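A favour, since you know our structure tokens better than I do. Just paste the record in under my message, thanks.
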Amino acid sequence: MKLYWIDTFTSRPFTGNPAAVVPLASWPDDSRLQQVAFENGLSETAYCVRTGPGRYHLRWFTPMLEVDLCGHATLATAHALLTEAGEPGPRLVFETRSGPLAVTRREELDFPALPAGPCAASPGRIITCLDRAPRELLQVPSQER
């Protein structure tokens, strides 16, 4: 497996938010993906498989489990594909468990955000943890899978 170690949100080495990026030709067993993520020891390891021109299936693993979404590892994947792996297109679309994510190369990478909205859940546990009531409680809308 080829692995890229990318520091996001920075232009200097050894700063920013690191993520591992592993482009794959096909999906190995999930246990192998989890083992590599554990071995990396980073907050996220991103795996991608090309599905067409400028299109990839993308998954993220922490050292302990697969997660539904990781912004910095998505940007790291786009950077690795566009600058290191020879992806020619100015726009990449990643199919993920959270839905499609598009990243466009401009002067910097442009990554869409899901705006948060009001949360209907009770803030009881948050009040207990913070020892005060939050001014506002928001949540990201769920995506169809």
Notes: The mean pLDDT is 88. Residues 71-84 form the longest helix (14 residues).
